[in-house]
Amino acid sequence: MPAKGEGQKIPGSSVNLLSRFAENAFWIGRYVERAENLARLIAVTEALSAGNDDTESWTSLLQTFFDEPAYEATGRSRTGLSISRWYILDKDNPNSVISALTLARENARALRHIIPTEMWRQINMLHGTVEGLTARKVTLPRLNEICESIRLGCQAHFGVVDSTWYRDEAWLFHKLGCELERADQTTRLMDISNFKLMALGEDGAIPTGAWWNSLLRQASGYQAFRRKHRVNVDPADAAAFLLFDSDFPRSVRLSMLQAFSRLDDLETDYSAPPDQALVVARTALATRMQDRPEALVGHGLHTYLDEVQRDLNGFANAIASRYFGSG
């Protein structure tokens, strides 16, 4: 949903930013990051399905977002082409790329007096590029190219933000939203590859690192992973890298450490400390990241990813309640 907030200062702080503007900034970060990661998820699903309409692989994408009932209601067939078009182009799908970018632009419009002109221009260009896509243009052979274009456009947004936006409290909320969304989406990206790996094991095949090689590439982590692991990829090593590495930008752990740092900055620089509910949610998430499961493949990994996602949602809701008066 687009950000909604009251025209009041953030309670219990000396912050000059209105709570609704903080929420706008937060959701710009979340929505652009979501669009990029949707493109990643679609691309990795296409790679796992070997460029065809493998129903099982594409169904796993629907299951990752709990979108099976919504998709069934459209009456569309469960083909890779139909599902990918739904996730890229369909404005009635709240989890589509075009929906995320439309909401990012609406939130940016509310902050025209705060954000840099370059940032506003970039969001409009990115939105226009995706809106200009038609169903005829979105084909399986072109899917990777289209997803790469969306990813690069989103990355350009974050580059513009980091090079032009004044480092004030609005910037902090934007980064906080981005980091929360990145952590959540990395777990979803992992779950899709793990789903396929489990399916291979159930069929009696010997799981290899091929699926995780593909995942690492789609997470922009292949070269970084190779700096630590010179031999063939072990699925558990790849999972540990994406979850717990402290130096890889897209890891869940680093995303959460950066989000915690934004909260610390809000408290020390802008007198906006967390309330008790946010402290509890933050502690629960930090504890979850410390309590690593013994098995980082198969059902054990799936269960752990579900638990991380629940803690991330609780953390996000506590942030909304504390700073935006919602949740």
From TrEMBL:
InterPro entries: ATP-dep_Glu-Cys_Ligase-2, DUF403
Pfam families in alphabetical order: Alpha-E (PF04168)
DUF403 domain ranges (all copies): 17-324
PANTHER family assigned: BLR5612 PROTEIN, SLL1039 PROTEIN
Protein name (Swiss-Prot/TrEMBL): Alpha-E domain-containing protein
Originating organism: Marinicauda algicola
